[in-house]
Amino acid sequence: MANSEISKVRKITAWVIAGLLTALFFFSSTGKLFLHPEQMGQMHLANWRVIIALGEITSALLFLFPKTNVYGTLLLSSYMGGAIIIHMTSGMSIVLPSVVLILVWIVGFLRNPELIKK
Q: In the prediction, which pLDDT does 13 show?
């Protein structure tokens, strides 16, 4: 009984964090597309902003759904790695993208414990 309770808590926790992260990625992609496209210009990525935003949306949707969350985890890990590099080369803080990356990994491991092999 306790094992199923842990499993239930694990699933709920993963869904809550995944939902919040997906909302964050949607908000971020909306900013790239409509709200603050000039920020992409400051990072010399203005010509790529639509492709980056569509990749972010696609990755977030793959991440949200259980059948494709492993692919979404991999894609968002790559995406956030790129964000960290852009932040580093632009002299911006890497704290926020690093925290988001860690949360992506936490959800990935909560949903797919087999990813952690001994």
A: 94
Of 114, 103, 110, 112, give the one whose Cα is nearest residue 22: 103
Structural domain boundaries enclosing 81? 2-115
Sequence-ordered list of residues with C-beta below 8 angstroms from that of 82, at least 6 positions apart, any chain:
none
CA 7/CA 65 separation, integer angstroms? 17
DSSP 116: S
Which residue, 112, 83, 107, 113, is CA-closest to 95? 83
CA dist 109 and 118 (Å) reads 14
pTM of the complete model:
0.86
Q: Considering its fold, how many domains does the chain have in total?
A: 1
Structure tokens at 48: 């790529």
